[in-house]
Amino acid sequence: MAGKEWFGTDRTTLTWYPSIAADKCTQCGLCLLTCGAGVFGFSSSKKTYSVINPGNCTLGCTTCGKVCPEDAISFPEESRTFMHNIIKKGKIFTKVKQALQVRLEKFPDHELHGTGVVR
């Protein structure tokens, strides 16, 4: 995970990833199937699912926790609160606007409708 950044913030300092409560997990596999980021893995010897790539978890995503039928997956805090805090602390809006501008310059015919970022 070394070297990964999220809009200028070292991803290793952002503790957003799921935890699996082993006593609740029934090994249904929905977490692995619904996660597009490769956060989960399966141990065939132990017959268990686990978080193997926590730094791959998309910040603010809780899909795996929402689809878990046993409520066995949790996150460090509520996603909206977590995202609000890191966006404010890391001055992310400025960095996002800069990244968006770079992307828009690559596609000059693209039009944005509405007011864009709410201030």
From TrEMBL:
Pfam families recorded: Fer4_7
Domain 4Fe-4S ferredoxin-type: 16-45, 48-78
Superkingdom: Bacteria
Keywords: 4Fe-4S, Iron, Iron-sulfur, Metal-binding
Gene Ontology terms, MF aspect: 4 iron, 4 sulfur cluster binding; metal ion binding
Flavoprotein in keyword set: no
PROSITE patterns: 4FE4S_FER_1, 4FE4S_FER_2
InterPro entries per record: 4Fe4S_Fe-S-bd, 4Fe4S_Fe_S_CS, Fe-S_Ferredoxin
PANTHER family: ADENYLYLSULFATE REDUCTASE, BETA SUBUNIT, FERREDOXIN 3
Protein name stated in the entry: Ferredoxin family protein
Natural source organism: Gracilinema caldarium
Lineage: Bacteria, Pseudomonadati, Spirochaetota, Spirochaetia, Spirochaetales
